[in-house]
Amino acid sequence: MTSSTARPSGVLLWFREDLRLADNPALNAAVSSGEPVTALYVLDEETRGPRRLGGASRWWLAQSLRSLKADCDRVGLQLAIRVGKSRDVVTKAVEEAGVGRVAWNRRYAEAETKIDAELKDRLRKDGLEVESFNGRLLHEPWEVRSKSGGALKVFSPFWRAATARGEPRAPLPKPTKAKLKAGKALNGNSIDELGLEPTKPDWADGLRETWEPGEAGARKALTTFIDEGLKGYAENRDRPDLPATSRMSPHLRFGEVSPHQLWHAVEQARSEGSASARDVEKFRAELGWREFSYHLLHHFPELATKNLQERFDDFPWPTPDPAHRRAWRKGLTGYPIVDAGMRQLWTTGWIHNRVRMIVASFLIKDLLIDWRDGEDWFWDTLVDADPANNAASWQWIAGSGADAAPYFRVFNPSLQGAKFDPDGTYVRAFVPELEKLSARWIHAPWEASREALEEAGIELGKDYPKPIVDHRAARDRALAAFETLKAKG
Fold it and tell me: Which residue ranges does the record assign to the Photolyase/cryptochrome alpha/beta domain (predicted)?
């Protein structure tokens, strides 16, 4: 295309991690242009660099795409789903649709940003207009800076700087069929052809029973949280036995809801008197941790593989014990709160945030297994496996990250269980072998009397495992390993 040639009319909207119609800046801009809009999603597992989605995330993506496709149909926007290298697929779609403009919402992992930058440059050289938008975060990762203009490595000053930027914008409306001018429909793959869902074996029954992926599911989950979980959130969010968390994380991960929608939804609840300022601020701080994680990912692209604190590069990780790793993954460690969490993860693809910290601490410090091993397992099994949050949170527990919990803070799983699941309700839900054991013993069954175990129908080592390590000895071993780093200065 030469500069003297009139630009073709039409916009190619490239969906990525923004699988929604409401509050979608790229979609809003495409519709507002008044030009015909053609929609595309690309499953790119060919380009080297981007991290391949784990099994649970792939299952979620399939359901979310089905929901998005149906939503697009309802407003007269036909969504084409294609497989291949993003650069090639998008370029070909531009030619087939005959558009003069391309729009997308930004991504932030290094491999994806590189793809986007190269493609943007390539398309512009071909004479197209290319626009990218922030549809994923309250603030761009590079917009929040320290006083000296650099990256922030501690959450509190980061969040102060972020909130000082002012109230996040209001959510954008969902486009109506009357306002949307449909562009040329493209051929594509069916969702079944993508091979995202497990077949032999099909292990996703628990996910199907637990979740409703898609934008409509996100709206329902948000309504439930506002009505039932936001009040008392600040006090109860650490209790896995209570329905006191939002469970919005997988919907955020796939962009079925935006952080702007969440921010303003809880603010509306506060203004209407159904939630306290303390509860709202605590929830917003959790959105802040997500923002902080993306800030870290932007400034430290190797967040999932490299210690932010370089001194931890010399940490003396022993060769992992395969039996210990297997016991942790299967929820057979002999520590009930750990086992409940790991079984919840395997069954539902999600794990309560407090319990995430407990099971991570157990892997890293009780079993002395490298945090990257746990981060990788979560990446495969979580429906909300997020490139920023997952890595930043594992490094936080390991003590190797930004604003990290000190390595010498070692969670005692029995005490944590007794504190945050005092009646054993959570443990009983996921470790049915212990269902009849009293709350007195349920977080430390090895301390129960023979009579208490017999009454509950439990033989340790047979019906439920004995602890695979002694926590006190494991803690001493972990601290001794940490001392070697301190000795090196």
Answer: 9-138
State yes or no: 249 annotated in a binding site.
yes
**Packing angle of the helix pair 55-74, 371-381 (nearest 10 deg):** 40
Give the pLDDT confidence score for residue 250 in this predicted structure: 98
pLDDT one-digit tens code per residue, 134-143: 999 999 999 9
Please indicate if the annotation marks 247 as binding a ligand.
Answer: yes
Of the candidates 363, 151, 168, the residue with the CA atom closest to the CA atom of residue 259: 168
248 is in an annotated binding site: yes
Residue 456 annotated in ligand binding: no
**117 in a domain, yes or no?**
yes
Q: Say whether 124 counts as a known binding-site residue.
A: no
Does 407 carry a binding-site annotation? no
Check whether residue 331 and residue 468 sit in a common domain. yes
How many distinct structural domains can be found in the chain?
Answer: 3
Task: Provide the residue type at 3 as one letter.
Answer: S
Any known ligand binding at 283?
A: yes
Token pair, residue 35, equals 């030009």
Residues 335 and 445 in one domain: yes
Stated pTM of the model: 0.96
222-253 pLDDT per residue, tens = 999 999 999 999 999 999 999 999 999 999 99
375 shares its domain with 389: yes
Instruction: Answer yes or no: is 233 a known binding residue.
Output: yes
**Which structure tokens are listed for 301?**
């692209």
Instruction: Please tell me whether residues 150 and 259 are part of one structural domain.
Output: yes
| List of residues 6+ apart from 217 with CB closer than 8 A | 67, 211, 251, 256
Instruction: State yes or no: 7 annotated in a binding site.
Output: no
Q: Is 384 annotated as a binding residue?
A: yes
* Domain carrying residue 421: 310-487
Q: Is residue 178 part of a domain?
A: no
Name the packing angle between helices 277-299 and 389-398 (round to 10°): 90
